[in-house]
Write a structure and sequence with these properties.
By secondary structure, this protein is of the alpha+beta class. The protein has two domains: about 90 residues, Phosphorylase Kinase, domain 1, CATH 3.30.200; about 220 residues, Aminoglycoside 3'-phosphotransferase, Chain: A, domain 2 (Alpha-Beta Complex), CATH 3.90.1200. Helices cover about 35% and strands about 15% of the residues. The radius of gyration is 20 Å and the shape is globular. This is Aminoglycoside phosphotransferase domain-containing protein.
Length: about 325
């Protein structure tokens, strides 16, 4: 690869996840980023090994390059044998209105793929009947008798969230920290979890509190409303509000959205909540759950489910008096 690019200069190791090594380098006097995918099969990523994850990220970056303005760093080169990606280095300056630019970038990203791209990336996995059963079991464990109409609404929700037929390019982990706020707009990094599915699952991050992120945050509703409107308008989804709330509910019922990626797919984390709490980032799993229950308790299109969430929130706050609201200001390390 470097026979073509030239010899890198001034390498500097950067912080990264346990699944990669990252360096800042210079090529012909210009800054660039080198990322090497490492590690064995990853339970939270379809048990893909490092080579498969490299292919997944490189494929997603090539698909994302169709967007204008850009939504990702340019892929300068790829070396599958050594699982290396050479990427454009991006500046970063986050401001208070970042969720709006973030939503606009998601809209452009999700729109780059078509049905013709089916099979280029794995399909996105939505919540399952097992997730719904675990959520109802948690309600029972909190001392709530679950009504039949709430169960029916939950079953109907799973049908609506079926990703079959959706082909949006999903980032897979669109957390603050995996973005860069440049003078020409927001761009997303780290596409190793990319998939094809329904993009509303990622727009829902803003309202439901950044569900798979260490820095869970309860953003101001006015800012969330504006960001959602920007996305829905950009994609022509003028009637997409209820589908967006469905996506929020999907994150609520997924116990795996209470733990970091390395621990997903290995336990019923909703069931764990009745006997223990744990921290990921600045907030606890119970704090995350109760925020999501508050969001879902306001759903007018699922009234029985909303009443169930309201009761669960009431019982949870009684049983767990040390609960705290999510931070209203985003915490980042970049």
């Amino acid at each position: 690869m470097y026979d073509t690019l030239g010899t890198p200069a001034n390498p500097q190791r950067l912080g990264s996840s346990p699944r990669s090594r990252v360096w800042r380098i210079e090529l012909h006097g210009q800054p660039a980023i080198v990322k090497q995918i490492i590690g064995g099969p990853e339970p939270g990523l379809d048990n893909m090994d490092a080579g498969e994850r490299h292919t997944r990220e490189a494929t997603a970056l090539r698909l994302a390059a169709r967007a204008h303005p850009p939504v990702a760093p340019a892929l300068i080169a790829s070396d599958p044998a050594h699982r290396l990606l050479v990427l454009e280095q991006l500046p970063n300056r986050r401001t208070g209105a970042w969720p709006i630019r973030y939503a606009e970038t998601l809209a452009r990203l999700h729109a780059v793929t078509t049905p013709a791209d089916t099979g280029t990336l794995p399909p996105w996995h939505g919540p399952t009947p097992a997730d719904a059963d675990a959520f109802l079991a948690l309600a029972a464990a909190l001392g709530i008798a679950v009504r039949a109409d709430a169960e029916t609404e939950l079953a109907d929700l799973l049908d609506r969230l079926d990703p079959t037929g959706h082909h949006d390019l999903i980032h897979g982990d669109p957390c603050p920290g995996n973005d860069r706020h440049t003078p020409t707009g927001t761009r997303l990094l780290d596409f190793e979890a990319a998939a094809l599915g329904n993009g509303l699952a990622e727009l829902a991050y803003l309202r439901i509190g950044l569900p798979t992120c260490w820095n869970a945050t309860a953003l101001p509703n006015t800012l969330v409303d504006e960001a959602e409107t920007a996305y829905l308008t950009a994609r022509g989804l003028t009637g997409g509000r209820e589908a967006l709330l469905d996506a929020c509910a999907g994150w609520l019922i997924r116990g795996d959205a209470l733990v970091e990626r390395a621990h997903r797919g290995q336990a019923d984390h909703l069931a764990r909540l009745t006997g223990e709490d744990w921290h990921w980032g600045a907030v606890s799993a119970r704090d995350r759950l109760t925020h999501r229950l508050t969001v879902a308790a306001a759903f007018e299109h699922m009234p029985a489910f909303a009443r169930l969430c309201q009761k669960m929130h009431q019982h949870a706050t009684t049983l767990w008096p040390s609960l705290r609201p999510l931070p209203s200001r985003l915490i980042t390390w970049v």
